[in-house]
Amino acid sequence: QLQASGGGLVQAGGSLRLSCAASGRIVAIGVMGWFRQAPGKQRDWVATVTRDGSVSYADSVKGRFTISRDNAKNTIYLQMNSLKPEDTAVYYCNAVSLGTTDYGHEYWGRGTQVTVSS
What we know:
The protein is built from no helices and 11 strands. It is mostly beta strands.
């Protein structure tokens, strides 16, 4: 129900743009966000955006990443600039449902690999 795309290999200092589209059974969506998991590490929060466009960022990406949202398309984006090798991870999108049958349920995408070479 969540399909992420846009990952890839980029050199340090480069940019990538991730997209995540919600579809299917996810009909009413509240907060959406991005998380990431580096090899051997726990999954960490990166950024979130509410339905009305309020955004929050982890300190590690503040000023470099921008999260945005298109409610009409049930899609969020993550523009990643000034990428660093430590940004290398699998990036997952997340959505919290506001539906009547699955209110509060968190959906996860399958993840997209981002690799930043030094």
